[in-house]
Records
---
Amino acid sequence: MTTAAMFNGSVQRIQRTPPAYFVFVGLLIVLWLSRPNMLNINIIGIFMRQNAPLGVLVLGQLLVMRVKSIDLSGGGVILLINYFISSGLFPEASLTFFAVLGLTTSTLIGLFNGLMIGKRRVSAVIVTLAVSIILVGLVQFLSSGKPPGDVPTYFNDLYNTKLWVMPSPVVFWIALSLILAGILSSTVFGRFVASVGESGAASHFAGVPVERTIILAHTLAGFITGLAALVQTASIAVGSVRVGLDLPILSVAATILGGVVFGRGEGGVWGPFFGVLSFTFLFVVMTAFGISDPGKLIAQGLIILLAAIFYGVRAAKSD
Amino acid sequence: MSSLIRLSNISKSFGGALALDAVSLELKPGSVHALMGENGAGKSTLMKILAGVYQPDGGGIFRNGHSISFVNPKEALEFGISTVFQELTLLPNLTIAENMFLGREPRSTLFSIDRRRMNTDAKDALNELGLDLDPETLVSELSIAERQFVEIAHGIKADASILVLDEPTAALNAADVEILNTHIRRLRDAGKAIVYISHRMDEIFRICDTVTVLKDGKLVGTRPMSVMNPSSLVSMMVGRELQDLFPVRSKAFGDVLLEVRHFKIGAGTKPFSLNMRSGEIIALAGLEGQGQQRFLRSLIGQFQPFNGAVTIKGKPLPLPVSSASGIRQLRSMGVGFVPEDRKEEGLFLGLSIADNIAIGLHAACSEISLAENHRQRIEKAMASLNVKAANARVIVSSLSGGNQQKVLIGRYLAEKVDILLVEEPTRGVDIGAKAEIYKLLRNFATSGGAVVVLSRETVELIGLCDRIYVFHADTIVSEMSADTVSEQNILNAALNAEAAIERE
Amino acid sequence: MKQDFTNLLTGRQSRQGLWFAPLLVAIAIAAYLALSAPHFVGSENLLNLVAQAMPLTITAIGQMFVVVVGGLDLSVGSLISFTTAILALDGPGYLLIPAVLAFAVLVGLINGLAVTRLNVHPIIATLAMQYIVLGVTRTLRPVAGGTVPPVVLKAVNGFVFGVPMPVFWGLLVLLVGWMLLHGSRFGLHLFAVGGGIASGNEQAARNFGIAHKRITLLAYVASACFAALAGVYLAGRIASGDPNVGLGFELDAITAVAIGGTQLSGGIGSLQGTIIGALVLAMLSNGMNLTNVSPFLQTAIKGSILLMVVGLQKRKLIGL
């Protein structure tokens, strides 16, 4: 192969790499130059642990975005499960009980989303946003009677453990990512997801159950959201009426940054993983430089817009 | 007599394939000019260039010696060319009047529309055609015949000097056709030129005075209608070399695999029956839109026929088939359906050859099962298909048309079905790949399968298939055995030329 | 005659969609509230109702432009908050009001260009803009406060010949909306583009020589401008800038549009339907306030209404 061909090949490889990797490396460099003392494994572990709920939520988001859908209901679901756990509705309940309750609820909500989107064909954004609003309204209404109570201590204890050098929530997040990556690459369901994302019409003619795949994707995403909710609840000591509300849109941003945009699965599972890491470090850098919270909102929106434009322009060129 | 408009040496390619090759056409005032040719001959492309939908790659359009060009139908209209397309282009959520005047609405003030004038003018135009329709009716509320008339009225209203009608009588009954003919004659007498594209022989002979025949993108000739008759017209449209592409036809056939009885596509169409035995390749022939595709797609649920009885390998297939699960249902009965549009409906262009072939196998499994690699089957498939690619991981969009088509068919061959329903097996495929695909299909049949082929290439049908069913007006008008038939026979039947000849 | 009535009830034969049925629903709700809720029929409450319904009505009319061409504008809520923040910058009215308009046009242009030229899905583009504008708003005005120019206050809260200003706002918006949507060539072209999109043939309107990209772009600009107008009105009502005042307006606007019979797939809708939809929502809020329903529960109920109304509309596309 000539040097020119190799160069062209590399350029194409770079173009196909999701932006998340570049952003992550870039932010690491910025941090190393400006605050090198922050770059030790313990501190990084803490930052990652803080974003573990987002990381888990992203796994569900990338699954539905791969079938050209979206899930913005995570905020409401997380709030609801947090409410179950911290409201004192179930005193003396065990971890298992809360886990089962939370996961069942979130999975059912995911199923509802899936049916509305897959069978009734309602716009995914509207359905999932509406579901989130209903849940948030309900929880805020129910808890306005009494102030949010404490989260049972075994949650916090679990949150604070470490497996070797990594905090267990981070290990949990990585393990889940491995499992999802495995599902997507080795099961028939993963093949269905890839084909529905690539072309709904071709999938239909190839005999793939398109509607069922979308419904399953949303249901599974619901289950994963429940897991994210449990991790999120474990991270706080007291219940809250505003926890997790900003996570869904962040998960969209991280997923798009990681190369999973409307059917395209180039980023796989690890692109969005690094997307979350990018946002983790982005917020660290922003805080280090004294940029305010609203600045973070602007960053989120800009990243979504620019990444979407990047992929939109590329799709138009390849037509 | 000077011509109204002259198309000179028009050429047009799509993605490397030549659709029109230096075609010239002259339209004289006061004439009704038929444009004929088989499917794919280039009539539609030529007409769309005249309508402003496409721009020619070579050659030009001239009026009064001046070269003219336009980029959309509205601009073409400004040059006096009005086109009534076969795919109706009226906007369903606008009224008749709004559709007629869209883009050139009469204004009462700078911004607002003079609706009263718009409606009155529309009503006048409709009345001229003898149509008693309220111009404020939404187009979505009109019947197809009414919509067609409105489209024609739109063209007439625009005071065009050239009116192009593409299959104008497709949805009209005999009485309406007479009304249309009266108006066409009136326009002709007023000095307009009318381009009439139709497959209906009797209409062509009744109303047209000149005919231009296209074949394979080239001009065959332009003749006055007075010196033509149906057979001479048909022989202008056909006449190709039968190339040595086709494998030997089979002689041994087995059990009946597919049986169709008393199938009616619509409420008013004639019922038909057909059958197919193992080892056979049968063809569904006919000009475009005569019912063959609607019949085939009824089996997968994309079209809801009026009624019929379909039996597959002895088991009945209840009609209507569900559109969501039809393909999977057929698959479970051992039938594979290969759609005609491999780019939009068939292949996953962004995925690899292996993924494209294996997806059919995966689709038969349950979601929670592990996806098998199927490596051996894929390698075997690639070898027997002779797909020219480095390995199975190559992305399908980078393959040539012929190789892409082979991969698509390969998916269904790998699925081990008994019956293949194939739409346009060699569309956009080079000669070499065509021969290989024919061989594949014949081998499939010889090993006990059966194939239904839908194709517009009569040469292909004769060479590849054992029996040919010819469709016309939503029913089968003729069944022929391929070893005794010629292109002329098929086209005659497709045009229902026999009936036209008898009527003379 | 009977056919006409049935047509009105089912929305057939009209590009205006199903607005008559919501009108009946609105009358029913009004009647119910008049009978059961205390103080509903009082002139104070009715004026309150109109004044409160105004920003939603204005936003919903703007949203309708975008919905008719098959899109959605999720950035209007933030834009409303942003508008109040600008107006509260303690400057002269003749500078701030044009500034507000300029920003609205800018936001609309960004949305429209992303959708028409850069191939971005309208929901993604406007969702992203929502966050960008929200971030800018919260930087500009982290907490509610500031003073709004007196001209704005008078334009919203004053009286002319004894008639309260909101009535004039309503008439103005009705007139402008009607002219743009149903009277002008722009409106007809808007519906033409939407009709093409809804029937699956995006390019259908181009055959008629309609610049469908420009029309779509203008729809997004119109939505942003109407949102800004709603923001001006709100600034006059709350007499301050508030970064949270616009939260949720986008979904309420979409709900109002959908209730009024406008199809989210494009091409079908009516101004009167959208206004009725906004009134229905406003009456529900008003009624719920009068009967002391918690505001949290109110949002949950509005979310359920949105879900119901959208669930009833048919669509060919799956997903986003």
---
Amino acid sequence: MSTKAKTEPDSAPILKSASIKKFGLFTDETLEFSPGLNVFIGRNGCGKSHLLKLLYTLIKECGEVPSNGSVLEAEKLENRLAKKLAGVFRPENDRIGRLVQRGKGRTSAEVSASFTNGRKCGFKLSSLDKISAAKGNVGTLEDAAFLPSREVLALFEGFVAAYEKRELSFDETFRDICLALSEKQLRGKRDGMLDELVKPLEEEIRGKVSLEGGRFYVTGADGSIEAHLVSEGWRKLAALAQLITNGTLTKNGFLFWDEPEANLNPTMVVQLSDTLLRLANQGIQIFVVSHDYLLTTRLSLASEYPAAIPEDQRCPVKFFGLARRGSDEKGVTVSSGSKLAELTDNPILAEYAALYDYEGSLFEKTQTQD
Amino acid sequence: MPTPLKVENQLFEFGDEWSIAFKYDDTDFHQKEATKLQGMIDGTPHSTKAVDVVGLHNVSGLLLLEAKDFRGHRIANKQRINHEVSVEVAVKARDTLAALVGAARKPVSEFPSIQLATALNQGNDVAVVLWLEDDTFSDERRTKVSLGTLNQRLKVLLTSLNVRTFVLSSAVPNRINHMAVTNLPGAGQPNP
């Protein structure tokens, strides 16, 4: 079960902004988030996945823990944060000080997140692994789910037990998502909103998702098929359907998804895009890392033509372009905008444009060869 | 050097490397003979189409060029840009190639029909180029992606003709050697 209490709709805060200093590749950046969909793009090695994991860590650990006798309640926030950072980032020997941006002598990272209720949460982390958390709490947060780029339904069976025995080298996001997936589906008839979100996914994977005996199945017209026997793309959508139907993804909740497009063919990417927009429309704050031209462009079009897209897909969208500074400078720069075109650097678009240039150069050569 | 050609408020100028360049769709051959092939099929009217320009480069070979200037007409032409323009250009290229074969068989003297037909021989390159202008082509990278996507569509449509295709615009670098394109007064403005 989740350690966080479910709250009344509209009462739970969501993430408003984050200030990150000397953490990983982030030298000094403040990011203002959309309450809907946040899309991070950039070349490999720009810190996108680290950013996603950092935000996830803050959301998971900064929310107020209810008085339900859970073990975590007794721990101080900094201990929880230290443990989560170690689990999510997996630094060598759990030395979370290695996450601090490298520099001469001892340095410290400083991370702070602001929420829509005006409260803040954050920590300071020294390169010697010492962590101190800011005072106060942000109030109760809804659940957060982190979907790694690798799909998880196929490795679900027995994963958590093996992870707890430290038999696996996966990071903690895999354990967390397996726990979230194992939550039982909500009882009773699906309400309209839930059905609208899940039905298109079930149509795409041609069946419903079920968990029986510790194993996931996709049950459709051809009967039940073990999840690990269906395509990886289908498994990704099936996992999302499970998180919706079991209530993990709920209003004012958080979804983090690293490269959701991986192993999806373009038609499924279209379905994925529409689903992300619908989820954000229902009040789930979403953070996505993507390298995909089709996905990012469709999301940008949703932002550019809000009145022209289906009403259930309307939501605020914000893009963040991460780019390495020049070779003589450390860290990354971040540009942002509600449309892809507003970003200073869009490597996906640049590569597609370069493809046109490449074909143009070949076309041109045919005119100069004897 | 071929005479500069005015197409859709743009001037196409060809260097000495071009032995032939003319407004094919203005020729009597196209307007009076090729277009005789027209009529109704299943209740839908069909007629022979033609590209704007036919040219012959000393090295690169035969060029069929169609110019479209949608500037100032974006709303009216939006659907055509997205869906129909590649089909329209492909059909025009197909009909023009077929007509050029017929012109050489006659032969037609209005333009060097036999020389053009010889350029169609196996081993010679034939290029079909769409020169497209649009109000949305302000960002060069996005324009390249749009033009590249359109070219992929055009390439598929013209697979059977074994031609090279490319889509160009004044918003991106010109890839046709020894040919320059300039805007004439009124270019980019809606027609009165």
---
Amino acid sequence: MNYINNKVISEKMKKILSLVTIITGLTSSLIAQDAKEIIAKSDELIKSKSSYAEFSMEIIKTDWTRSFGMKSWSLEPDYAIIYVTEPARDKGTVTLKRKKEVWNWIPAAQRVIKIPPSMMLQSWMGSDFTNDDLVKESSVVNDYSHSVVNEETFDGYECYVIESIPKEEAGVVWGKLLTWISKEYYFQMKVEFYDEDEFLVKTYVGTDIKEMDGRSFPTHWEMLPEDRPGEKTTFTYLKIQFNYRVNESFFSEQNMKRIR
Amino acid sequence: MLLTLAWKNIWRNKKRSLIILTAIALGLWAGLFSVAISIGVWEATINSTIDRNLSHIQIHTKEFKDEKLISNYIPDGNTIADDIRKDKRIKEVSGRVLIEGMASSPTSSSGVNIIGINPENEKEVTSISSYIEEGKFFETEKRNPALIGKKLADKLGLKLGSKIVLTFQNIDTTLNYAAFRITGIFKTESTNFDQSHLFVKNTDLYKTMESEPIISEIAIRLNSSDDLNFVYSKLQLDYSSLKVETWKQLAPELEFTYEMLILELEIFLGIILAALLFGITNTMLMSVMDRIREFGVLMAVGMKRVRVFFLILIETFVLSIFGGIVGMLLGGITIWYLSDKGIDLSIFAEGLNAYGMPTQMYPVLPLYFYFVLILMIIITAIIAAIYPSIKTIKLMPAKAIRTY
Amino acid sequence: MKTYLLLAWRNLWRNKRRTLIAAASVFFAVLLALLMRSMQEGSYDYMIEASVSMYTGYIQIHRDEYWEKRSIDKSMEVGDKIVKEIEAIENVTLVTPRLESFSLISFGNTTKVASIIGIEPGQENRMTKLKNKLIKGKYLTPDSKGILLSEGLAELLKVDIGDSIVLYGQGYHGVTAADRIPIEGIVKFTLPELNKSMAYLSMNYSQWLYSAPERITTLSVMINHIDNLQEVYEKVDDLFDDKYEVMTWSEMMPELVQGIEIDNAGGIIMLGILYVIIGFGIFGTVMMMTAERTKEFGILISIGLKKGKLAFISFLESIFLAFIGVAAGVLVSIPVLYYFHQNPIELTGQMADMALSYGLDPILPFRFAPNIFVDQFLTVFVIGLVSVSYPLFFIRKLKPVEAMRK
């Protein structure tokens, strides 16, 4: 009697097991398909087609610290203008990005300077970001292949951990990116940048979730270079307006001089 | 008759003659050998530079010489390259795209000269493919292969198979970013070169820039370096709107240091001969003093002073020339033998590499030196002979006979 | 002992001619060796002097890690007091401060990266003769608010005297450095890489521009002669603690060191060859002389002079001989080398042109220093003594009876 019962039970178990496997498989492939969507959604969160923002940037080095107040206008993915409001010495400095090129307006010299290719990899305004970083941001969605590799709680939020591997043709130095994106809200909480040998080179962490212009997202960001502990560059959004009215002609050399 | 006498006289004091002969022979041999080594090293350095990158003749636009922008490419470059190739004197022609840009890795970036080549042609014109330490010379299926120097790879923290991102300006001055794969790593004698040059396929560059096949530089390798001046003049005439240059003009510092080297070596040989000169004079003086009595007799018996003078002169001459010939033969043979085998100097590898110098040395002696040397020996012999000869003919025969 | 010495000495002068001939071979050997070595060492000193005056100086002082990192953040404050202390060190001829940085220079639509050096115009000129390189416009004064551009850079930017360029870069502690600066002068360097990338500002102005008041990146020290380097280096090093790095030219230009070493190695080999030849000459002369005295030796031995004693006398004779030859050689060389040291041989023609284009004087320099004389004196003396071995050997083997019959 027992024998027959066991056999029946194990048969049933097998069936249930296979059903569960199929369901799980389906689900995970669904999730895999969505990885790119998740990233895209997350990307769009703090970038709308166009936006206006006010923020502060702090550069912390072992010897010194500097703070800037800035305003920015952007028309994704190709155009942005960043205007420095503080401190007084740098007030009026403007950075213009058009597609893959960067210009600076220098009030002290009353001149526009285009950043030559050899300086693109130099730091922007002394921070841990390079001029290059300013122009590369928006290519993440399309230049990489994404997949969800994990789910984790980070900073109290349940997140998808998405692994992004650059496509063969992409002109990016990274081997892989790991992005923590809140399942519920789709904001990015952390991005880890790895080289092709899987060494962590830098980390980008977002905290201080607040609501601005109808959306919630981390308003305080820190860029932490792995090889220089104690040093970092931080961004704090003070205000953001999404779908701000601005068109391409706004992002011009002439306008760099007129902006306030 | 004097000759026979002179010859016999020399061998009367075997020991003395042999000593001075050996001194002359060895001195010259050593001198020739060191000159040959120095020149050999120099030639090797120049040749490796020509082989590695310069090639015999290069052509650019005049604007390119001022500013190495991609926009200063050679109009109809490929057609010109094809035309030049037809000349029988020319072994091969390689058209290259040259762009100054940046190479970056996750951790670092560095300024580089990006050289877009046609691997097939390039192999016949320069020897860069023979310097590959790891990987291959573009025989690969990988997308966007790149060949970089070891020094650069180290600086950027990359290795074979790593991704390297190149940033450069297009013709219309927009910026291009492109990812390449390191499929080969080369190491030349010049670490400077290794750090600042990398090679990619020109077709990959055209693809990235979305441009027509253009070339910035035409590099020409001749079948024989003897044709250099001829081909140079011809090309200058044919393409007067472009800048045609030989390797000597492209790297004038090589020529300069060569001239200085030759000067140093000539002085060195001169000093050796001066040393030998005193030795010869000394020897002859002694030889003469030994035979004062004999000369006294000769002159008393009627031999003209002039003939005595010439006797001594010939003796000195024969001695010197004989030693000289032996020395030159020794030198010539050693040089000839070693010019094949070469000498290994890898203990000094680091220092030599920094100067782009090879560690395997082959002595080379231009024929010119042999002639210079013969001339120097003759002059030395004559000068050496003067004092002893004069001393002899000033003798008073009577007194001479009475000397010990 | 005195007897032996006297005997040896008298022996020498018994046959004046023979002695003089032998001494002469030593004399000429010394002369030649000295000439050659003086020329070789002269050229090294010369190369070093030329290279360090071009830019680095013999010794440089920076904040620790500046040489590697080259960031204006690693600049230092160095007061007048310490500068005066360095200047007071014996053999120091000049101390020059600089504030170095890389920034963008722009004019019209052209922007280039350049090396911007803040200098004290007078001192800089004394060290590198920068003023002599001026081909247009005016040299800087300490109060200048203008810029000196290298010729190649000016050509690339298509600017001339009177135009104003824009300088843009990063100053101390990340402060932006930006200003519109009039071009006061254009300088020309023979090395094309330098010619396309250098720009100079007055120290006061650059310190203001880069928000680095009282700060400099390097202090360069020049001395009167390379022989004094080690001494001066130690004294300078003592003045600074380990928050600073004190470097010598050999640390800053290792390729030059290697180049000289290779050359030196070659030179010593050549000198060695010269010695061998000289050795042969001396040896041969001594051999001949000894052979001449076969009869004399034979007689001496057969009348009772012990071989050992005869050998000893021969030995003394050789020492005297070598000494006379070497001393004479050195004495004559001193004025000769001194003359060439003060009046070096001039290069002509193509060689001269090339040297000039490298910013070098077209000369063959000679070195005049005690070490040369001492080195060669000793070496040739030793060679001379080595040739003593022949007479000793000869005497040992001598069969008196046969000898007397010669």
---
Amino acid sequence: MNAIILSALLGVVMMFASVFTENKIAIRNIAIFGLLILLASNLLNIYTPYSFNVDLHNMLRFDSFGLFFNSIAIVSTLLYVILSGSDIVKVGNYPAEYFALIFFVLCGVTILSSYNSLLMLFLGVEIMSIPLYILTGSDKKNLKSNEASLKYFLMGAFSTGIMLMGIALLYGASGNFNLEMIREKTSIAEFGILAPLGLLLIFISLAFKVSAAPFHFWTPDVYDGAPSVFTSFMATIVKTAGFIAFVKLFSLRMADLGPSYAIILPVIIIATLLVGNITAVFQQSVKRMLAYSSIAQAGFMLFALYTSNDLSTEGILLYAAAYSIATIGIFGILIKMKDYTFDGYNGLAKKQPLVAATNTVFLLSLAGIPLTAGFFAKYYMLASALKSNGSALWLVIVAVLFAAVSVYYYFRVIQAMYFKDGDAETTEIDGTFKFVLVVLALLIILIGINPSILLRWYYF
Amino acid sequence: MNWLPMLLDATESTAANYFPIGIQIIFAVGFVAFMIALSAWVGPKRKTSDKLESFTSGISTHGDARHPMAIKYFLVAILFVLFDVEVIFFYPYAVNFKSLGWGGFEAVLLFVAFFLVGFFYIIKKGALTWED
């Protein structure tokens, strides 16, 4: 509860920061300070009884899964703001408002990690999405940014409509918004098609939010058109929050309600892996490649829905952390590049050896090479699939093959940095930036050597 | 008269159950068509070109809808709608004033506080200053 209330209030505080100061560095520091307070309040909520006591009418439920994800999301945002904060304030004329919107997105994220009622799911998705539509279009003079914003808004509005229809049908079948009550009161025999259809519509809408194929079409255009700093935020914290909401919906064995998800999910997983990986191979721009790679990574995260056991809940948390940290680092470096194509990275290792080295660690982690966090993230996902269902072996093999495909396009960046001659032009890179990059890379290697460093906080 | 018990018995879901609804649709459409035809036939007629123009508060129209306008008009209009609609929330509160008690009063105070914070923000940001 602490994180939900404080993130909304801090958003208002950031709004008023713009009224009282024009100093961009001060605004960034206020945001960092606010995120630290937010993190502290969330930790208080987990490990001590100090939290706001509000009568929630059982609409929100705080468990260690959601609260631990809050910590991951807040820490990721903190690292993101420290790393790219100086680029966020450069996007346009309203630096404080960008941070305010980021806090409002975090408010939606924290609701999504603890909802217990379909109404709160809807509110969380909306509170998370609406600030993003604005952030996508924040580069006002850029036509691509405007196009991306409009596209994202229209598609998002339709998907929300579909979700509302699904919620209405589930309510019609059960007379209740509460997740457990719906689970209890609805049986296919009694209510016919209503409940399965409602669940399917919510499934479609959430699949849109996490850009799973075949609902991924907005992703490349929006990620490419949005200012790079905000793409970084959208591809990491927001996407993983969508998955947490998804997993929460399915962890109550809601899937038993619907049409056979044992058939639907493998089809969607393979389609997502196929579209993401194969299309990413043909990209010329690293930013667009990362957009497709985020679709491909979503394919792996979908395994958590397919299995729903203790390994997959640990796995999705680990995946959220590993994927967020690596992607924030890669985008942080991408923002500093003057040329976003693969050729733009040529010879970066000679000019900025430290930046190139950390970038290599991030890319290896996304590809899932051992000794990086990405390896254990993928490992947990695939292991949970094998644990829950022996016949899932073929699906695991397909996923591993696609992971091998992903190595090709991630290594193209490494190849450009180290083995090609060129003059990689960057904007100025200061000491803080390099320091945070090293911290991110160390985190990835530490989690990659021993994932229980992260997961032991989950079982406090 | 064997259709009357059928009208009252709604437990069976057959096509015959929709018979009364069919009658009502026919009646509704027929009544509207009849009234329009009747007023056209009986009523007085005076045809002028002014009557074919769209009604804009007595001001004659000019240009088409794609006419560029200052963004300030939209800003003021949107802000007006925003604050106007928020006032609607006071009506249900007023109706339930007694039963909600002090808890409801605190909730409304919180609502008004956020409301005023937003208002203060747009004033400070200069969203309502008309002259540049």
